[in-house]
Amino acid sequence: MGKIYTALGLMSGTSMDGVDASIIQTDGKSKYNAILDKYFEYPKNIYKNLTTLRDKIKSSKDLKKHQKLIKSVEKEITFFHAKAVNEILKKTKKNVDFIGFHGQTIFHNEEKKISKQLGNGKLLSKLTKKKVVYDFRHNDLKNGGRGAPLAPVFHAALVKNKKIPVPVTIWNIGGITNYTGIYNNKRIREKKQHNEYLTLDSDSYHEGFYSLDIGPGNCLIDQWIRTKSKEKYDKGGRIARSGKINKKLLDKAIYNFKKKVRKLSYDVSDFNISFVKGLSLKDGTATLTEYTAELLHEHFVDAMDGAVGNILSGGGRKNKTLIKSIENKIKKMGALTEPLKYIDDYGIDGDFIESQAFAYLAIRSYLKLPISFPNTTGCRKPCTGGVIVKNF
Q: What is this structure's pTM?
């Protein structure tokens, strides 16, 4: 058995409302144990600074134009992450070997090979007196990949560790929605000639897996809620349930989306809420929720082929209105043989999958094991990633 490491993963998603922190123990392969999870909410000033900055960054040119502001906000959130690290470390006796620092994404463009995550790894190492692994996406982009998603290899480890039956599909509904399909060796052998599936290293999980970004998750709904109210998101889909869907605007938006779908990289910036700008808070939320469900449900059907389970993860799993709409559409297509399941049903806290994933990826980076693959990000070959820094 390989050496077991302890890692702390830090993740701040597209909602920009705070930082998820998770301590796990793992061999970087299939051995895994969750130790502690904690959420740290950003204070109002950081939240405002982050969202204001993100709204200014529409292109790679804006990264240069707002360089001074970017550095200022980056320093601010790095200090906040350090505070979170030091606080969570007080709650455990485990000695953390590495910190997996995802940072805060403010711009991502796979065509230009640019992915900007705010977060100073050297400063975080200095402030926490820990080795920090950060900049996870650069090596994948350099090797022809899209830079995302990076969690699939961790999903595979979870499925192995929790003995979840395969084939299974894990649906991560975050700001953007992606899925990880995990199949057994027999299915891999059947599909090997098409290069559709792959295996992990020989000492790890011998199941094939692949992944793909497929469309918006929470990003449009969250942006609308922030624009039209003092709330940050539609808790449980409550606001959407109280509104009325504008069918005319919805149909036009779907038509326009399908015309440009092949040009998308599925970054948050690929989608916008302008088509509902004249609606009320409730009706706009209802329409955007239905729009999101319309863009997602056919992908669910396509990926369900042969899967014995479909498991929901990510913050969007809590939006009951969105999930119900997706389920109903799948049922109408005759493709839903059993209800969608939740990652929480398997003893896994669905709120901390991403932060646990970056703790896991930090260890894999240290061990020089691949974290992205041709069938997850489109890179030319399996790539390790993550810059390791010790600054104390």
A: 0.90
pLDDT digits (tens, 9 = 90+) for 370-381: 999 988 899 999
CATH of the domain at 136: 3.30.420.40
Q: Are residues 126 and 224 in the same domain?
A: no
Domain hosting residue 341, numbered range: 214-346
Rounded Cα distance, 205 and 31, in Å: 10
What sign has the CA pseudo-torsion 153, 158, 163, 164? Answer: negative
Question: Do 12 and 19 contact (CB within 8 A), yes or no?
Answer: yes
Q: Which amino acid is at 24?
A: I
Assess contact for 216 and 295: CB atoms under 8 A. yes
Q: What's the structural domain count of the chain?
A: 2
| Class of residue 186 by CB neighbours under 10 A (exposed 0-12, middle 13-18, buried 19+) | exposed
Q: What is the DSSP letter of 143?
A: T
Biggest CA–CA distance in the chain, Å, is 60
Residue 111 lies in a domain: yes
